[in-house]
Amino acid sequence: MKPSTSLLFQTEFRKFIAASKSGRRLMPSGKKLRENSLIQYESTFFLIQEFEEISHEPIRLQLVHRASLRKLNTVRIYWERIHKKLLNFLYQQKKVHDNYAGCIMKVIKTFLRYLVVYKSLPVGDYYKLFRVPKDCFIPAIISPEQLKFLIADKEFEESLSPVLRRTKDMFVFGCTVGLRYQDLINLKKTALQGHDTEISLLLHTRKTGTEVSIPLPAYAVDVLNRLKKPGKYLLPRVVGSNFNIQLKKLIRMAGWVNYHPKYRQQRGEKVEIKTKNGETYRFYDHISAHTMRRTAITTLLMLGVDENTVRRISGHAPGSKEFYRYVVISQQHTNEKVRAAQNKLLE
Which of 83, 193, 217, 218 is deepest in the core (most CB within 10 A)? Predict the structure, then answer.
């Protein structure tokens, strides 16, 4: 493509990142973009740099204002070729799975749409042709029965070290309120409302910005009393990586060590991911700080709380694809219960 009629992809993408960081580009709601989105943009930029170095060809944004039909067709073929080469680079060179490849393609589509809609650059709407791979995996969660064990089994609790006892209490509390780990450890004592047995947690959800009051059951209040320390925060501020290590030890000590293969999709094909030692993952390997949030949301759905109420507590926006992963999990649980009831007819 002739340089005089095109722009360098890297140059314009760097401007896109700068506009997103400074607040000149905002979310549809009018809020500044979250830090995670900016990190994703930077990662995509470095991948594009590496892709161009390997292919020895810079990606160009061809300007198609008042272009002939022949030129439009040439540009379409160019973007189809770039899209194919980029996916091959991600799968063959970087060995990524569909979930990661999908995130990269979403960022690129967002960037190209930004140029067309907000910068009025005539680069065409060829981004609509880009395929975004999807990885439909079902995350591991703690079942209601397992959560009940962690809450009520005193013999198991007494067998734990003080550190693992603290981890268990934090995990139980997190599985009750459903907050992201960073939000959980940043909770201040001023978030508690009420007195005696009628205590609620008042907070603002980060995604939707709505104010939510979550009633706390007696066991959650007991956890807070056990973890209470001087200072302004409700819970101990444990580093996330350390908490995840302690959490896996806790789940292993609970005896939940059954094999639980980890699957991801690559070009639509299911692939089993092994541990560093080449072994199949066990259940405790899947458990992390984010399991608390998944467990809380799924447990509420399993116990019959309607989707709108659960979404309000979790802070998911209406139509959130991420939220419907939890609905799928709870539906599987419902199906198992129905089949068990149907089988009793024949007994």
Answer: 83
